[in-house]
Design brief:
Length: 170
């Protein structure tokens, strides 16, 4: 059986489906490294990204299996959440979602994209480094990125780093 997959702009109808995708993806993380199971990116934040930034979903055979939520933060385009259901992993879906978000940022005139991630998990910082992101030194993080890292640490997430990508180099 042939499968078809698609990266597309999300709709309001997609938002309630994203928590299940994120919960499935969270099962890949060591339990002591992420907030409680079920503590997912808020629906209202996805709605804000739908209005102000970009919210893309990945579909396989008309089933939403991944998403990326991003929007402006300070002077950069910030990736707040990227998740792919692990049953659909290793197919390039995460890479294509990132590419779509970066293309959107470039079209909107942004020269930098940022995100926070786990430094030591191979499907996190090393994945983003392959896409052109670099780990920022603590003195390079701006107020908003520092605040995000502080909140993540408070929620129990450790070994987190901020990363940046100069979009003009892509």
């Amino acid at each position: 059986m042939q499968t078809s997959d698609l990266i597309r702009a999300a709709t309001e109808d997609d938002i309630p489906l994203l928590a299940a995708v994120e919960s499935a993806a969270d099962k890949l993380f060591p339990t002591d490294r992420i907030p409680q199971t079920g503590d997912v990116y808020p629906e209202e934040s996805h709605r804000r990204a739908l209005r102000r930034g970009v919210l893309l979903v990945a579909e396989v055979d008309e089933t939403v299996v991944g998403f990326i939520t991003s929007e402006p933060l300070d002077l950069a385009f910030h990736i707040f959440a990227l998740a792919v259901d692990p049953n659909y992993g290793q197919r390039g879906i995460g890479r294509r979602l990132m590419t779509g978000a970066v293309e959107h940022a470039l079209q909107r005139g942004f020269s930098e994209a940022t995100l926070t991630t786990f430094e030591d998990l191979r499907w996190n910082a090393p994945f983003y480094q392959k896409l052109g992101f670099r780990v920022l030194a603590p003195h390079e993080t701006n107020g908003a990125l520092s605040s995000i890292l502080d909140k993540e640490l408070e929620s129990g997430m450790r070994c987190r780093v901020a990363m940046s990508c100069d979009l003009s180099l892509l």
